[in-house]
Design a protein that fits this description.
This protein has 229 residues and is mainly alpha-helical. It has 2 domains: 5-150, no CATH class; 175-229, no CATH class. It has helices spanning 5-13, 18-23, 38-43, 48-63, 74-87, 93-104, 118-152, 155-170, 179-184, 214-228, and strands spanning 200-204, 207-211. Helix 4 (48-63) packs across helix 5 (74-87), helix 4 runs parallel beside helix 6 and helix 6 packs across helix 7. The longest helix is centred in the middle third of the chain and has 35 residues, at 118-152. The protein is elongated, with a radius of gyration of 39 Å. The N and C termini lie far apart (94 Å).
């Protein structure tokens, strides 16, 4: 079910309610397909400052789980939050919660987490988006498969489909009409496009004439002279 951006926006705007919002965030990629994005929350009336605070608290929560991020200052978390909101408005709070959780567990860093800064966060976001896209494709394929199964398991649908295919197999090409049949119907065959003939050029008494032969050219010239008198 689609989560309404307006309801979450109202909750975000309740100053001091950040912790309860974070507790209610989802933890599985398959559950966030209908979560409202940062852009949708802002458009629905979420206060930008409060939204920054929620994201900053979320970042600080997971930074405290790391020895390299345990000394993060509040102003750093706010700055990171501002950057994420500006550069990744299509992500949801649920998305951020999942990618941060995966990140601190080492899911996106095979060699271990050596530092915790905006560059690391952006790398986690990019890897999470690949994971999110794969999950979207999996869910879409599953829905398509379910739709096919529903259609296949419907006896009435199968009966109509078989009837349609039977009728389709009976279709034959229409026989070509003869010239007499066309004439009886009072119609004409499409006329073929006329072919342009290339005629020779002849010079008759200094005048250039196009004709099939010199004799025809002479006749054309004589007719021209007669009409000019």
């Amino acid at each position: 079910m689609l989560q309404q951006p307006s309801a979450l926006s109202t909750e975000i705007n309740n100053v001091g309610n950040h912790a309860s919002i974070i507790v209610g965030l989802k933890s599985r990629v398959s559950d966030v397909m209908s979560s409202p994005s940062i852009f949708q929350l802002t458009h629905a009336g979420a206060n930008r400052k409060e939204l920054e605070q929620v994201v900053a608290v979320l970042i600080s929560k997971y930074a405290n789980m790391l020895t390299v991020g345990g000394n993060m200052r509040p102003e750093h978390a706010i700055e990171y939050a501002k950057n994420i909101l500006n550069d990744w408005p299509t992500m949801s709070l649920d998305d951020l919660n999942i990618l941060l959780s995966n990140g601190v567990k080492g899911r996106y860093n095979e060699k271990g987490i050596m530092r915790f800064d905006i560059a690391v966060l952006y790398d986690w976001i990019a890897k999470y988006q690949d994971e999110w896209s794969a999950e979207c494709e999996r869910v879409l394929n599953k829905r398509k498969s379910n739709q096919v199964n529903i259609i296949a398991s419907n006896p009435e649908t199968n009966r109509l489909m078989e009837s349609f295919l039977d009728k389709l197999s009976d279709f034959k090409s229409a026989p070509k009409l003869t010239d007499k049949q066309i004439k009886d119907l009072g119609i004409e065959r499409p006329r073929k496009k006329a072919t342009t003939l290339v005629r020779e050029k002849f010079i008759i008494e200094g005048m250039e004439v196009n004709a099939d032969s010199e004799e025809e050219a002479r006749k054309i010239y004589d007719e021209f002279k007669r009409t000019r008198k």
